[in-house]
Each structure stands twice: as C-alpha cells, then as structure tokens.
Amino acid sequence: MKAREYCCCAIPIVNAGIYIALTEQFVTAFIVGILSVATPSIVGAATPSYSKWILAAICFIVAAIQILGFIGVAREKPTLYRRYVTLHMLATLAAFAVAAAWAIISATRHTTAKTKCLTDFFQTSSEGDTLCEIFPWVDIGIMGGLWVVLAILHIYLYIILSSYGSSQRRDHEKYDQLNNDSIPMNKRNDPWDSRPSADSVLSPRDGHNYNHLRQESGTSVSDMLAQPQVQPKDSLSNTDYAYQQSSYPPPSRKLSRGGASMYNPHARDDTLTPQYDAYYGSRVPQGYPGGA
Length: 292
Fold this sequence. Notes:
The protein is an all-alpha fold. The protein contains eight helices and two strands. It has helices at residues 13-38, 51-74, 78-108, 110-121, 128-176, 186-189, 221-226, 276-280, and strands at residues 6-7, 11-12.
C-alpha cells in the first residue's frame, strides 16, 4: 500500500499518528465490549440473551490485539507488526459482522421487540402500542447509523495501519541492504570479467550476425608472462626528432670566460660566449663582484 505521511489530515504518521490510531482502536473496542454486557437491553434489540457476550468477547480480543501493534511500532519489528495488521483485520471484521447480524435480526423481529416493549413498559397504558411501534425502529436506525460511522472510521484507520506497515518494511529493507552480501562487488562490476556479456556491437534486428562478446580465455597467466616482450619499431614510436646522441650522459656545456665567470653561465652553442671586456671595456658594472 502507498506510504502516507499524515494521519487525520494533520498528524504525522511517524510516530504520533500511528500511536493515536492504535489507541483509538484499543479504547473503542474496550468500550464497546463493556457496553455490550454492562448496560440494560435496548427496546429495539430482539436478539438471544447470549448475543451480547459474543460481541463483548470479540471486542475484548480486538483490544488485546492492539498490544501487538504497540510492540511492533515501539520496538521496530516489521514481521510482528505485519501479523498484527492481519489479526486486527480479521478480528475487526468479525466484530462488525456480529454487530451487523444482531442489527439485522432485530429489524426482522420487530414484532417480538414491540411485544417485549409493551410487556416491560406499558402494561396498562393505551399509548404503549404507538410508542412501542416507533421506538424499536428508532433504535434500529441508531444502531445502523453507528455501525456505518464506525465502519468508515476503522476502514480509514486500517489504511493508515497498512500504510505504516509498508513504509516500515521498506525502510528496514533499505537498512538491511547496507550489510547485505548480495550487492554487486568488484568481481561482478569488472569490465574485464570473463563471463559472457549480453552486450553486442550490432543489433541482431539489423540483420548482422556479429556479436562482440567477452569470452573466457584459455591462456594462463604464466604463459602470457613467458612470451617475449614486443615493442613497436616504427618511425612514430621510435623517433629521435633529429637529436643524434651516442652516449649517456651527454657532454657537459662549456663555461664562459671573463669578469662574470664565477656565475658559470652555460653557452647556448659550441662556441665560447664573448667576454664582457670585449664589449664594455674593463669597467665592471655596479652590482657585480668588484663593481662600484
């Protein structure tokens, strides 16, 4: 069933809403069971004397089942809560079925209810015939209306209970997946896995018979390592870019001579760098060793 977020339009179902639903059903079942046996019979009821005990027993069972619901919610037990919803549905259906049966029996035995009304309340009054004709039907109408209201309410509460159970099981399944060994590991996700693949380069619907599949190789690792190493010998992979060099390390650069020789500047070619004195005379510029 679809997960819901609110109960009674405004109450969050987690966790205030679900506790309110469980409490309402417990209180309603307990009160109906008490009223069935602790109150005098009504005028419109024309049922056997044991009928009230049957309805009371079923209502007390419904109230006791709600305890399982409280435990399932408080201790986060999806299995127990799911069993509670099933038992609650069966017991509630039984209670409503018995109540509907007693109301229908009372409606069909209107004459018996009228006779009992006259015997109990109007033994010597001439107005009893009229009153006992009306009141049994009024009682039947009240019982039927109350049955419909409670049925609609508990159908809605059953939807809330089932919705909470669905969301509870879904959340626990997601939580259990964190420690589950069935999640895909590297071996299953490896692109070099040797298991056959269902992927194909060309679709069979295009009339092609070629499929690009990964097949298991028959060559062992030791055989592959024993094969000679092969390197490409073409001009692109082995080019020297016109730099001919016969030995390593390469010959060292020649140093410059002159006033700045202590800085060891490298020459850019095989010829010596012109001395400083050849261009600027014997005067050493400021900032150099020996300069002003």
